[in-house]
Amino acid sequence: MKAFLHIRREQIRRFHIEHYTALNNINPHFHSHIEIVLINRGKTRLWINDTEQILNAGELVMLPSYAPHQFQAPQDTVDCTVLFIPPFLCSDFMEAIAGKNISAPIVCDAESIKTVQEAVARLENKDMNAIEQTGYIHVILGTVLRYIPLENNAPQGDIDLATKIFLYINEHFKEKLSTEHIARELGYSPRYVAERFRTDFHIGISRYINTVRLKNALSLIRENKYTVTECAMESGFSSLRTFYRVFTEECGCSPKEYFKTE
To answer: How far apart are CA 4 and CA 250, in angstroms?
Structure first.
């Protein structure tokens, strides 16, 4: 599955809920948010990492960070609630699924679905404070975690390595960075580092580096203080040409076309 980074989703750095009556207007994509889709009516086809599944009414699916996915349900054939949870709001959950293979991410248990629906109803209360919101998010994630089977992918040491790679990239993305450089810094072979990162985060190292750089460049461009070239270079891109290539590959359009639609 060739998926693109959902840049607009990445720009929303808070928990939010959306409602849809169709799920057929977006190509395969990925983002850093944990996405939970609850089907209230109808059904939808779902692709996760090239695996097709059917999601029916009264079921939900949990999509981990950076998992490539796509839904397909024509207009007015489905009613669904979608939760987008930034990883920083649920570090315990992220730790629990780190290094795990989630082969069956769909929850069908009626009692669990009811618990999630009640928590979602509470979360839609606009007067809720941040602590209450975090509490109900954890209720949902805890309920999901109870019914989604997790299979070990790697020993604990390897899980820690994947986290180290993730943190290293986020701290050093503005520098000249490659799989070989990261492997050398952490004391492992480039091949092993690349396999470990892809297994845990469902995205290649080079692509993730470009994703982080692209997000940073877009944030700088929005400040209207710097030229596009300055924003690209400040974010770690080796040239403006590379920035435009990565932008087009991930967003499907040029920066000019992208900002014209905002």
So the answer is: 5
Each residue's pLDDT tens digit, 66-114: 888 899 887 778 899 999 999 889 988 988 887 677 877 999 999 999 9
20, with CB counted inside 10 A (0-12, 13-18, 19+), is: middle
pTM: 0.73
Outline where 148-189 has alpha helix (H).
156-172, 179-186
Strands 29-30 and 4-5: parallel
- Spatial neighbors of 156 by CB under 8 A, at least 6 apart, are 99
Distances (CA, A) of 208 to 25, 68, 171, 211: 25, 13, 13, 5
CB 73 within 8 A of CB 26: no
Strands 34-48 and 78-85: antiparallel
Torsion of CA 143, 64, 177, 162, to 10 degrees: 50
- How many CB atoms are closer than 10 A to CB 3? 22
Per-residue pLDDT of 209-253, as tens digits, reads 999 999 899 888 888 888 999 999 999 999 999 999 999 888 878
Longest Cα–Cα distance in the chain: 54
User: Please, are residues 210 and 246 in contact by the beta-carbon 8 Å criterion?
Assistant: yes
| Contact by Cβ (8 Å): 117, 17 | no
Query: CA separation (Å) from 205 to 95, 188, 200?
Result: 20, 14, 11
Q: Which residues, at least 6 apart from 57, have a Cβ–Cβ distance to it below 8 Å?
A: 39, 40, 41, 42, 43
